[in-house]
Specification:
single chain; binds 5-phosphoarabinonic acid; alpha/beta; 5-stranded mixed beta sheet
Amino acid sequence: MIKVDLSGASAFFTAAGPDYAAAQRAHETLKAGSGLGNDFIGWLELPKRIRDGELDRIVKAAEKIRARSQALVVIGIGGSYLGARGAIELLRPIPGENDPQVFFVGNGLSADYLCDVLARLGDKDFDVNVISKSGTTLEPAVSFRIFRELLEKKYGKDADEHIFATTDARRGALKGLADARGWESFVVPDDVGGRFSVLSAVGLLPMAVAGIDVCTVIDAAIEEMEALADESENNPAWQYAAARQNLYNKGYGVEILGCYEPSFRFMAEWWKQLYGESEGKDLKGIFPASVEYTADLHSMGQFIQEGQRCLMESVVRFTQARSAYEVPFDEANGDGLNYIAGRDLNEVCRIAADAVKEAHISGGVPNIVIECPARDEKGFAALVCFFEVACALSGYMSGVNPFNQPGVEAYKKNMFRMLGKPGAV
Ligand code: PA5
């Protein structure tokens, strides 16, 4: 279970402190399914539904891909991409000897990026997992057309065997193609929006191919969702949601999410979409940004310490490290580092994090610590469930519909008109 430490934020709260009564109302609304966007709250039950539904087939498909291919090309964007990438980079940042390499495409329109991936893919045997709930998103659709052609050239009539489609159960161009070609398909449930879909086949199939134990992820997520149903001030999701809403109302309009593990980078990207798309509407919202520590202390540290005072900082810390490494002793001590010789790098990092926290608080940046037990399958599940529940509560507390994203259509309309799509105006 995630622990939230608000000690570094308390001095910045309003006199009344975090509004737990509002968090409770938001939670009751979410549980009763009586709030805005209530037709998109299937993610609350998703871990259970997946365990009793597609999980076995996901694991079998992943085994098949792992046995025959050296690479998996995952095609998707936004909610159909960031969760899987976040999980894989967090848990398997370097592929094991028997793990296929996972390439992510369809998350942009850069020809250079595509060609780089193609060069790295070379003549490896590969499978494709195309992920699109709507089945009509331009970026993944273009990439899919390209990779289908490659599969056809490489595998001829067996190309269809190498395609796994994750899409809507009934609608969309991708669903139509999948049915017509007989591709193995997985479902993005109707009542789960893209950014809440990582614990469906959207995230789980690429994760399983990368060697992540998705059954453990799902078992842990089931337990976590049960724990997060607690209606009390001890619920970490209440604490986080109520704290950030309190700070927002005091004028802290930007939240930076930091972590001392570089492998967290894409989890932060996933978090940015989750919170940005859920809360940034009706002229409201906390702008979610991310920093990688300690690297960004040498680039963004100045702004965080002394720039415009609009920042709140949330820092994910893993209690247990995966490895340890002692700073070596050097007789000559030319670099003057012997004062930390013999100390584990984890200890040095922990002390650096404490020093940063103290400095940022004294510089006027409220600090929230989000403590995750370990960088493993259970820790990943705990983070996902915690952030999702807190996001829904925080959105309801600020009075928005956390489950829609009407604003993302504006650029698409212009783009389709400019590209000359038939019927676009
Ligand atoms: O959260 C969302 O709804 C979006 O980020 C979508 O996931 C993204 O636009 C991709 O859409 P689709 O899965 O329909 O291709």
